[in-house]
Specification:
Blueprint: H1 13-23, H2 29-36, H3 40-52, E1 56-61, E2 64-69, H4 85-94, H5 99-104, E3 112-113, E4 118-119
Antiparallel strand pairs: 1-2, 3-4
Organism: Thalassobacterium maritimum
Protein name: Winged helix-turn-helix domain-containing protein
């Protein structure tokens, strides 16, 4: 970690692994670990948990694994369960921070947090 960088993040390592595998589905887990900044063993555990949860499928292509994201599965936490994994991945990929990009992208429209109607 570079000095001056926060010690926390809004996304979990599971999300970072999914973001990386969406863009690089045929990379070895060693490369995923380097990109995310965690150990290869941690990535192996995360991939196993994502497979078990139905969010990811692994297939062999030659001697390498290839990862397929199953985007229509709802997000696991009750506060976001009304959204799919693909909603999150699409938002992350398209939101470049400009007003135009956020205006054009409607995946977060009506994204309610909690049962009390607060929205982001």
């Amino acid at each position: 970690m570079k000095s001056g960088e926060p010690r926390w993040d809004f996304f979990t390592n599971h999300a970072h692994v999914m973001f990386y595998l969406q863009a690089h589905p045929d990379q070895p887990l060693r490369q995923v670990a380097l990109a995310v900044g965690i150990t290869e063993r941690a990535v192996q555990r995360i991939v196993a948990e994502l497979e078990e949860g139905g969010y990811l499928r692994r297939s062999k292509v030659g001697r390498q694994n290839q990862y397929l994201i199953v985007g229509d599965v709802p997000l696991p936490h009750a506060l976001q369960a009304h959204r799919s994994l693909q909603d999150l991945l699409d938002w992350e990929q398209s939101a470049d921070g400009t007003a135009e990009a956020l205006e054009d992208f409607k995946a977060l429209e009506n994204w309610k947090v909690g049962e009390h109607g607060s929205e982001i």
